[in-house]
Amino acid sequence: MTSLAEIESAAKQLQPSEQRKLVRMLTTTLRSVALRKSNAAGQCVGTDYLLSAPIGAPAMTPEHVKQLLEESL
Questions:
Q1: Whole-angstrom Cα distance, residue 63 to residue 59?
Q2: Per-residue pLDDT reduced to its tens digit, 8-46
């Protein structure tokens, strides 16, 4: 599989339990990549995942969050 369409097609053919497992694995992988890029500290709290920005990090204004999300895509 080399394209997103092929991956999406294959994921749709998985059983729901396998789809959930795939989503958890991808989420964990993407979080760890994001943490390495940001130097932020992460912590699981129930089903939430909280980040603590390092000292001196820019304020998390709505505009900055939007910019970061756009850059991550």
A1: 10
A2: 999 999 999 999 999 988 888 887 776 666 666 777 888
Q: How many domains does the chain have?
A: 1
Instruction: Give me the domain span that covers residue 52.
Output: 4-72
Q: Is 7 helix (H, G, I), strand (E, B) or coil?
A: helix
Bridge partners, residue 49, by sequence: 44
* pLDDT of res. 39: 65
Q: What are the two backbone dihedrals, phi and then psi, of residue 63, each rounded to the nearest 5 degrees?
A: -65, -40
Would the pTM count as exceeding 0.70?
A: no
Provide the terminal-to-terminal Cα distance of the chain, rounded to the nearest Å.
20
SS3 26: helix
